[in-house]
Every structure is written in C-alpha cells, then in structure tokens.
Amino acid sequence: MKPPAATLIACTCGDALRGCLDFERVTGAGGTGPALVVRDFCLPEGRAKAAAWLREAAARRVVVAACGAPMAAAALADVATRVGLDVSRTVLVDVREGCAWVHTRGAQATDKAIRQVRAAAAGLAEAVAAPAPIERTLSDAALIIGRGPAAAAAAARLQALGSKVIVLDPPGSGGPDSSEPGHGGLNAHARVCGTLVSLDGDAGNFQARIEGPDGTADLTVGAVIVAGGPARKAAQPEDLTAVPLSDLEQGLADGTDDALPSEQGVVFIMDDVPWPAVTASTLGVALRLVRDRQCHCLVLFRDLGVAGAGLEERYREARAAGVAFVRLGPSAPETARTADGRWSVRVEIAGVGLMTETADLIVRCTTPGPPDVVGLRQVLGVGSGAGTIGQRMFLEPVFTERAGVFWIGAARAPVTEDQAVRQGEAAAMAAVLAMTPAASARAPAVVDTERCALCLTCLRVCPHHAVTIGPGPAMQVLVSTCLACGVCAAACPAGAIQVVDAPGRRLLVEVDALLDPPPPAGDGGLVIVYACANSAMPAAQALGRLRRSYDERVMLVPVPCLGRVETIHALRPLVAGAARVLICGCFDGSCEHVVGPQRARGVAARASAVAEALGLDPASIEVAAVAPVDWHRLAALLPVAGAVESPGGQGVRPLAADHVAQGAAYGAE
Amino acid sequence: MLLVEQRPVVGGWASGYGCKAGTDCTLCAVCLAAASARRLNPDGHIVLQVDSSVTDIKGEPGAFTVRLLRRHRGVDLDRCTACGLCVEACPAGAIRQPHPQAIPLAFAIDAQQCLRASGDPCTWCRDVCPFDAIRLDSGECEESVQAGVVVLATGFSPFPPSRRGQFGYGRLHGVVTSMDLEQGLWERGSRYLNHLVPGCRRVAFVHCVGSRDVAIGRGWCSQVCCPTALRLAARLVREIPGLEVSLFHMDLQRCAPGIAGLFRDLPPDVHLVRGIPADVQSGPGGLVLTYEDLTTAVRERRAFDVVVLAVGMDGPAAISGLPDNGHGFLKDLPPGVVTAGACAGPLSIADAVADGLRAAGAALTLLEARQ
User: Fold this and answer.
1) pLDDT confidence of A614, banded at 50, 70, 90?
2) C-alpha pair distances (Å), A541 with each of A54, A98, A104, B7, B101
3) Can you tell me the distance from the alpha carbon of B300 to that of B355, in angstroms, rounded to the nearest whole number?
C-alpha cells in the first residue's frame, strides 16, 4: 500500500466547525494518513497538542485543515519550527472559506473540504525543496543619478545612515575633479562622470558600467537612485512670442541677465492644469519681478494649482504684493505684435468679455519637460507596463519594479522642493533597506540546470530583472531581486523554473486532485478560481469574514501573481469537468509584478481557443480584476451564498447590503 | 518597535476607503495602503498595541516617557480566533468585528452597548467562547513606555462639514461627505448610492468644502480632494448606468501623476462645472444647488439626488503639549520627535506611504546618532 502522502491535523475551531463538517469523513479522506482532530489549533494549548502528536507520528509532510485567520498560519509556522519541520513541507487549508462556515448543506461542505485536503496532500508531494541559504556580502554604496534637491536629500540621509554615496555626473559636466562648492549641494564619497550603460546583478550587489570621457568604469553598488537625468534638449518653443518660465526663473536665480524685464508689463499665461511645481515657480518669479524689478505682472490662468504646502499662502502674498490674477474664459488667449514693438494679448474673460492687455513680455508657464530618462529607463529596465507605460511606477512613489532601483524627484514628475526632499529621504531609507537584508537568503525560485536550454525566455519576461545567465550554462534567479511572481516559470518552454511557493506541477496536481472525483455538471459544477495573493485572496478572505460563504462550488487556488497561471492551468479544469475557470487578480497598473493581468488575458485567450476546438465552452474561462479591498466586486463574480437560509437558487446572488455594514450585521438572520 | 493605535485596528482612514477603479486602475493607492497593513509585523519585531491613546510625551531624545491610556476591548487579542460565536450569543448586539481585514483580526465588545454597562450580570459571550478569550472585567488602564525616538503618524481629521451649514450636512437627506461616500463604497460597493437615495440618478460633488477658505480659517488646499472626487465619479458612472455626475470646483489640482489623464478623458457622464455652490436647499426636484458658473458668469439652480461634499483635511486631534502650525498640523516638534504622513500637512495615500519610509530613516538617524 502506498504510504500516506501527508499527515492531517483538522481544527474544529471550538465546536464551530463541527456543525457543518463531518470530521470523520474529512480525516478519512484518501491521500492522508493518521489524523488528529483538535479544537483550538491556533492557541498555545492546541499548538502543544499538535506538536506532540506530530513528533510521535514522525510526520514528514503536514496538512492542517483550519480557517483562514492569520492566527492559524502563525500557529502552523510555530508548530513546524517546534518539530523541526521545514515550512515548505506543511500546508494550511482553509476549509472554512475565510471564516464563513455558513453552509447548511453539510454534506457538500464536507465534500469540498475533502477535495481541498486531498489536493493539498497531493500538492505537498510535489513541493520543491527550498534551495540552501546563500551567504552574501552586500555593497554599502548607493549610486545617485541627478543633482537636484531630491538627490541632495537622498545623499545626506544615506550618509547619516552610514552608507556611501557615489554621484554620477552627466558627461560634459566637468567630471570628478569638478571643484564647484559642494558639488551643487551634493556631498559624495566619490563622483563619476559619464553615462550609465548597464546595470547587472542583484539588489544590494549591482555591477554598474559607466562610460565616461576617460573610458569605461565598473562599479559595485548596492542601490541606484534616479533623481534626475541628462537634461532634455530645449525644444523650439511652439509659441515664438513667449519666453518659457524656466528661462526667466534661471535668469533671476543667476541674477546676471540684464535682459530681464524691469519696470515693464509682464503677462504670464498658465493655460493648462498646472503642476504645483509650475505654480510655485510662477508665483516666485512674479513676486520677484514685482518686488525687485518694479514690473507689472498679470497672471492669466484657468486652474490655479495651489496643491501642496504653503502655495495658497504664497498666492495670497503675491496678490497682496500687486500681482494681478485673471481667470481665462473658454477660448485661448491670442497674442500679437503691436506697432511699437510690444505685445498685445487678447483674452476672453468670463462675464466680462474680451479684454486686451499690452505687455512687454509674455511668459508661458508650461510644464517643464522631464529629464531625458527614456534611455535610462531602458538601461535599468524599469517603468514598463501594459498599455500605460510606467503606471505601476506612478502608483508607488520611490519604488520601481526592480528591487534596489529607486525613482524620485524630477525624474518622476515635476515636484516642488518640499516633495523632492521627502522623496529623496524616503529613497535613501529604501536604499539602506535594500543594502541590508538578512545575512543569508534563499532564492525564491530554482532553475533546473539539466532542463534549462538557455533560450533566454525568462530573461525577456521577468518584470523584475531577477534572472541572469550563469555561473554555469544555465539561467539563475537572483536572490534578493526575485519577488517570486512566477512569470518566468509560466513562460519557460522547458518547465525548468520552479517557484518554490507555487511550482507549476504542484498547481496542476492540486487542481487535478480538486476535480477528482469528477464534479457534477450543470449548476453544481465547480468553479476554479486562480486568486492573486495580492488582491483576490485578501478580498475572498474578507468576504468570508463577513460570513458571505463563497459556496461549496468555488475552489480557490492561490497564486502569487496572475502571471503564474499557464494555459494548461486554465484548460485542465474544464477538461476535468469544472464548470468555470476564473483567473482573478489585480488591475493593470496596480499589479506589483506589472505584467500579471496582461499575461492572464493572453493565457485565457489561448486556453479559450483550445477549449473551443475541444468542444468546450470558451466563455467559461474568464479573467477579472478586483482590488484587495473590494470584496463586492468579487462577490459579483462568484456564486456567493446570500444567507444560511437562502433558497437554493443558483448563479450570482448579490450581497444583501445590510449584511455587510462593517460586519455588524453578522448573525442577524 | 511599539506601534500604538487608538482605534481597534491599524491602517488609519485609508483602511475604510473603497477601490476607485472603474474599468482601469486610477492610482488611488487604497490597495497600496492595504498591502502595507497586510505586510505589517512579518517577523514579530513590531509590537502592536491597539485601543490605546497617547496622553503625554515627556523627556528628551533617547529617553522619552510616553504615557498611554489603554482601553480594554473585552477580548483577549492573543486568544480570539475571530470565530464569531460570541457575536451570535450576544443579546445586545454589542460585539463586532471591527473590519473584515482588520489587523489584528479580533472582535471587540462595545462597552456602552454591552448589557453589563447597565448592571446586567450577562456573561453569555464568555460562556459560549470556546477559547476563553472574553475578558469582561475590563476598563481603562494607564501605562507608560520608554522610547528613544517617537514617530507621530496621527493622520488628519476630516473637516467637520457642519461648519459650512449652508450645504445642509446632517440636515438634508442625501448630503454626504466624500469620506461617507468612501466608507459607503467600502461597505456596500456602488449600491451605496441607491441605498442612500433610492433611484439616485444625479450626483453633485462640491469641491473645497473646508479647504482654501480663509473665512473659516482654512486657507490651505488639501490637495487630495480633487483627484478623489474625480476617481469616485469615474467609478460611480462606470458601475451605475444612467448616472450623471457634476463636479462643482474652483480650480482642478494636478497633484498626482496620472491624474491629468482623468481630467482629459472624463467619462461622458461626468461634467466639470466651475463654481462652488452658494448653498444646498431642499426643493421640489431634490436637492437644489445655487451656483454661479464662472465660465459663463451665469447664476443657475440645478437639482440633484445626492450631494457629496469633498471635505478637506484638518490637522489631527491634538496630543497635549505638541506644537502645531496654528491649524492643527504638527510643526516644529521637539528634537527626537518625527512626523510621518498627513499629521504634518495634507498628503495623498501614496505620498503618505513614502513619507513613512522617510520617517523611518529620520528615526533611525536619530537612534544611530545616540549610539
């Protein structure tokens, strides 16, 4: 007889689960050997009982059937440590649907629990051993690109925290010997002049190659902070009648330009919804011109952007100092040269009509172009995204999709000085964290060197730049850059990459076991839900904690990212008799791994095409997006039991609104 | 590292906000806040102390004494498995799950609603709890802790809309704040609007309620209300067919990357109206707004079913003895005390998350300087 795949511990959660699950049947489920039933697995008493029993049973693989509360996961980790069992040899099965045990149909609930327990046991047999921890030495130097206030703030904070700072000066800026006082406000241990041409290696231990006027330099750095970039070449101004705001600001800052207006009329045109940084510059320049140069300033605006610290006060200050502000009407202002060489500006003002103002100088308050960071993005491989370029990078300030690479200040968007300093200091802290992880770390994914054909697919698809070639003739996953999303494993044609937490074969074996024996067809058919650990899983758990059972037909299969799901995962359940496959995770733009939803749509399209060819319903493979806080949207996607006594109607039953009010209504029925 | 929170759960206001994605993500960062909370306490180095208020901070860098007032919630956090049996047993409905994604995940007994508050000897919850997690003889206790550095992340207070009485908040049915709408979306999804006013088809957002208004002592722009109103409008029109949303604004604020895209590609059912209404009155067709359209300089009256007041941010509830900028936001704090997030000035969720990192760096710098 085959030895049992795993040992089972089932928790009755006091007596709460006894009423809806038949524990005799659950513990007798095939695939598991002897079983222990405890009533309080997550409490100290239950943990002690479980540990003692596991020791006695000399368990090598353990399945715990309990609830979805975080306490249960903590208890399992604790028990595993006590009996010296690797956590990867244990698995927690949530047989309570995120704490919603509202089935009255006890037999079906038990059937579901049995399927879940057997799938977990089968999956455990396919668990991939975590690779041995690697001892690492990390660099304590951060490379800063840019020299604005964000860069200066980052450098200062890095040094205060005991890290080294290397500043990359753009080529042609004078180079390392530049003796300008304070290097433009940046204090650095070393300065390098040139262009970053490549960045290889792992977060905490990057190899940066810099091409400079004196040849190529290779540096080892722990983190890279991009706070600016080479200045974009000044484009020919569209409107030749107007001066760009930045020119005037620079001239005022230098204090050298005699061509600056004095005792003249200056009209500022702010025709767009301005960034706070643009308003700040406009207000600053107008105030200076009024106060120091006795100019007459008129600011024509549509939206006065005063978001941010103190801008509203600045605006009132400017108004008090004599700067005039006039809101533009719907049409754009027209400018024309007058006979005496000045300018006339025709504007439409709401409620007043057309007004003509004469000016000596017209200033266009347009958003300054961002530094030319497109090349830098490509070198660093960040800011990619499905359709909307770099969206994910814009969701989370400071971080990029590549661990150890941070993106701040003017490189992100026009920022005020206050914002720049905040981001700089935050990036410094993030960089220090990237440079001081645990002394040893395990790779979250392993490459089978026998199978790897060096086709470089993983290199191409990895959203985090966490795959590299070598040391031998095989790919390798970088320990601290890899976030274990599994996109490479899903894409690898040789199946050579296994994410330790979600190996592809294990996923498949689990799904097979969930569907064995074949489920009834029709309305009772099973729904396999591949649920993203960042979004759909938390939403499902919340649904459960609000006592909204997601039904015995719904089988949640957690995946680290939708990018982990392969075509076979979408197809196999349908072939095995499931009614629907739902691939449910983040939105484009909120996916931590950038490409997850996009890849899932591709997988669903391919799987649907095959399903059609096989005579199955192609529409039964779906992809959907939910936020972790939006269980309502998830509830609309799943067959959710409305209430314990609800008639056995099928399909989507909307949540009874009164039941969700802050969890208060639980038990009202 | 001790994390003190006065509410029963960590996460602040953002933990009660709803996702604002219509078809696409609008970068509201609510999920970012949720992820930060989920990732809290991964290795046990952080001690969470909820239900506790800071009453006093004394001392100097390296040796602060922080006095805390701890309210017992009637449930032992180490033993409550959130099984929910006590909720079923409670005859007064006084036991609640604070939040389905609460951290820590444990129930709480509302001491006011509990029958024992009126002298009843009820112990039903304790009798039914299989895990001996109910502590009925609880109250408040004072304690004090020592700390080298204090990080204040006390957040903001929403502007009390009753201070702008002309909008009828609390007086007219159908007038809610943007915070109420967020909370409603979180609790009920987009069905909230229909729950509030059945058959709701016309929604007005009034911007700058309690922001940019020197007359009520709030001269600052709260900078999160414009993007929030736009995102909320985008989600509502996407999920409720036939809904028309008008945004009554003064100036649109472009203060988040990606938000300009929302201005440009407004859904056809969302209308921007320049001009803040003078008042809201109950009329024959619903809630009637009187306003001057600044673009056409025409005074108009229009009826709506629901009026959402986009309330600004006020400073946090004061902790005694700490200086503020005169408007409640913390400023010029003594050495060794660091702020994080919106308690020092209005910030978006995403910026507040980043500001937490900044504060961590500042605190660490201070600690290292002492060693």
Assistant:
1) very high
2) 28, 4, 20, 22, 8
3) 43
Nearest 5°: the CA angle B282, B287, B293 is: 120
Tens digit of each residue's pLDDT (9 = 90 or more) over A228-267: 766 655 555 555 567 778 778 877 877 766 667 778 899 9
Q: What is the pLDDT of residues B329-362, one digit of tens each?
A: 998 899 999 999 999 999 999 999 999 999 999 9
Identify the sign of the CA torsion B84, B87, B90, B96.
Answer: positive
Q: Of chain A residues 318-357, which have a CB less than 8 A from chain B?
A: 327, 329-330, 350-352
Q: Which stretch of A413-422, A532-541, A555-564, A600-609 has the lowest confidence by average pLDDT?
A: A413-422
Identity of residue B361: G
B120 close contact with A: CB closer than 8 A: no
Q: In A, which residues are within 8 Å of B272 by CB distance? A: none
Q: Report whether A591 contacts A464 (CB < 8 A).
A: no
What angle is formed at CA A217 by the lines to CA A215 and CA A222, rounded to 5 degrees? 160
Choose the closest CB to B31 out of A419, A535, A633. Answer: A535
Beta-carbon pairs below 8 A across chains A and B: 247
Rounding to the nearest 10 degrees, give the CA dihedral for residues B217, B221, B222, B227.
150
Q: Which 410-469 residues of chain A touch chain B by CB within 8 A?
A: 412-413, 419, 422-423, 425-426, 428-430, 432
Give the Å distances, CA to CA, from A555 to A122, A488, A511, A604.
Answer: 16, 25, 9, 18
CA A418 to chain centre: 25
Peptide bond just before B130 cis, omega within 30 deg: no
Structure confidence at residue A218 as a pLDDT band (50, 70, 90)? very high
